[in-house]
Amino acid sequence: MRRVGNTAMAAVTAAALLSGAWLLRNGSETHAPPQPTAAEAHSGPSDPRSAPPLPPSPPDRIRIPSLRVDAPLMGLRLTGAGSLDVPPAREKNLAGWYEAGTTPGETGTAIVAGHVDNADGPAVFYGLGAAKKGAVIEVARRDGTVALFSVDAVEVYDARDFPDEKVYGAARRPELRVITCGGGFSPGTGYQGNVVVFAHLTGSR
Length: 205
Hints:
Elements: H1 14-17, H2 21-26, E1 59-64, E2 69-76, E3 95-98, E4 108-114, E5 117-118, E6 121-122, E7 136-141, E8 146-158, H3 164-168, E9 174-186, E10 190-204
Parallel strand pairs: 2-3, 4-9
Antiparallel strand pairs: 1-2, 1-7, 3-4, 5-6, 7-8, 8-10, 9-10
């Protein structure tokens, strides 16, 4: 896990979130999760337009209909080492959000993270690498609103070259990052990087 920097944004790496326990137990990469293609990467300046920001409200649930993701969200805090904690690995359909940061829908960069797998098989964000540009992400919030985000890009980064500022830097509009593991896989150390979905607010209901 990366330590929180001066921007007070917690960064997540493959080390704790994304150990590849299922692949390790199976001793094979046959069932490796999908990885983003070059077609889904950033291809130019992002569209600055966005729906008006929502007032702060904690999120309770995340849905990505195209990936059949429908999962509750728990608040994540920092560990004693200054890195972001993770959801319990045994809870395969549970994701978390950084509750000391931006809430999804308000101006800024909101962070959601979850496991790709656990010892029993695929977990909540197993299919995240298959997300496509334009896909809808829904975040149900405690105030009764649902923040609607559109995917701008899906990229995978090696843990040694993780672009902290690009992923966690402050945004002038409501943005969302959804993070899980990705990249190469080593039986000894697990996944070598992270899949990151970049999205921005396009509406609410």
